[in-house]
């Protein structure tokens, strides 16, 4: 009598034979591979978690500050079901626009950071690497030094963001012109041009302040260069919100070409992508979104560097999933950072860019160390 072959099922237990004989489609849920549904499930959980966390952060941002408002008073005011309350003006006219502006700016910077990292194929990139922040700061300082708007009225409210926006656009044009070589524009060229333009515009900003000779300008310019949301109002929220919505919609339609860039320049070209033209167009779009965000909030750094990395770890690299998660993560990060800026040294308001730099600087050094060791980042 022959012994059962090693590969046969004769010597196996009934339970083992039963399990082995089933096709993958008929196995029990406990043994069926879940790889096909896991990414979608995980994505849904991540988005839901971020939405819940952002809602909680918004309520906390409205309730906490130099004057603490009970949550029981905040929620009815936000939902429009509150009786007349002495906190109504603080909630609706002061804190809510500031919190929402923080969410919009954080989301915009994070989305642009994710896109720029794909464009230049360098995960150390962020919106401020390309000199747009320095351009916005130079434009704002020029408005302050020239006294445009006289410091009062709607002219002043429009002049400062307009000057920052013009400076950011100037930086965009300079970086684009310096990085372009004929019909081509490389990621390395963008990075080098951005660093050069950033240094030049930062020097011009300092020169403007020195020549002005007015100490009050130094304080205003310092707060602007470090970023802050203290000047948020409903009329300053509309433009960044619209630009963020349109920018995300446009970038989502370009998700597949952005994914192609991840395989490399030659691979993307073989697959039919005009990489030079595509990179130039998306670079302009991303820079314009960044300019609007910086014009509204000042220079808030490192959000566009840190959040895209966290988003990739949560949902992967494909941009159709990455961009919405980056937007929600950036919104949550900046709302929490601004909440800390208002409460850590209350009633003093710390520039939110200081806190993002305190966390972003060590993160940047960690990324550099990982790259030096040859690890993917």
Q: Pairing-aware structural class of the strands and helices?
A: mainly alpha
- Fraction of helical residues: over 70%
Radius of gyration from CA coordinates:
25 Å
Taking pLDDT < 50 over at least 5 consecutive residues as the criterion, the unreliable ranges are 1-36, 151-155
Annotation, overall tally of beta strands: 2
Tell me the series of helices and strands, N- to C-terminal: HHHHHHEEHHHHHHHHH
> What gross morphology would you assign?
globular
Mean pLDDT: 81
Described by strand count, sense and barrel closure, the largest sheet is: 2 strands, antiparallel
Number of helices: 15
Give the percentage of residues in beta strands.
under 5%
**Distance from first to last alpha carbon:** 60 Å
Q: What is the spatial order of strands in the main beta sheet?
A: 1-2
């Amino acid at each position: 009598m022959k012994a059962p072959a090693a590969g046969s099922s004769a010597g196996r237990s009934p339970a083992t034979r039963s399990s082995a004989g089933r096709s993958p489609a008929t196995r029990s849920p406990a043994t069926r591979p879940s790889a096909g549904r896991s990414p979608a499930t995980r994505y849904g959980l991540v988005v839901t978690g971020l939405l819940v966390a952002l809602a909680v952060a918004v309520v906390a941002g409205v309730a906490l500050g130099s004057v603490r408002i009970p949550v029981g008073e905040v929620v009815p005011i936000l939902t429009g079901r509150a009786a007349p309350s002495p906190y109504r003006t603080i909630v609706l006219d002061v804190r809510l626009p500031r919190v929402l502006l923080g969410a919009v700016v954080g989301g915009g910077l994070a989305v642009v950071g994710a896109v720029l990292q794909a464009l230049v194929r360098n995960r150390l990139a962020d919106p401020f690497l390309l000199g747009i922040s320095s351009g916005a700061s130079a434009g704002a300082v020029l408005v302050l030094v020239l006294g445009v708007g006289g410091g009062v009225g709607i002219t002043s409210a429009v002049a400062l963001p307009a000057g920052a926006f013009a400076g950011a656009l100037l930086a965009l044009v300079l970086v684009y012109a310096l990085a372009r070589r004929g019909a081509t524009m490389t990621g390395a060229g963008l990075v080098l041009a951005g660093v050069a333009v950033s240094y030049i515009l930062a020097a011009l900003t300092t020169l403007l302040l020195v020549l002005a000779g007015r100490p009050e300008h130094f304080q205003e310019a310092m707060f602007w260069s470090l970023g802050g949301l203290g000047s948020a109002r409903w009329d300053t929220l509309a433009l960044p919100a619209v630009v963020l919505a349109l920018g995300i919609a446009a970038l989502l339609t370009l998700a597949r070409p952005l994914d192609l860039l991840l395989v490399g320049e030659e691979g993307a070209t073989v697959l039919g992508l005009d990489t030079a033209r595509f990179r130039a167009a998306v670079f302009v779009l991303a820079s314009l979104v960044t300019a609007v965000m910086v014009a509204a909030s000042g220079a808030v750094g490192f959000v566009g560097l840190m959040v895209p990395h966290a988003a990739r770890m949560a949902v992967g690299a494909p941009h159709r999933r990455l961009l919405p998660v980056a937007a929600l993560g950036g919104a949550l990060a900046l709302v929490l950072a601004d909440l800390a800026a208002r409460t850590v040294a209350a009633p003093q308001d710390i520039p939110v860019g200081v806190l993002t730099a305190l966390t972003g600087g060590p993160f940047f050094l960690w990324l550099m160390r990982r790259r030096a060791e040859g690890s993917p980042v």
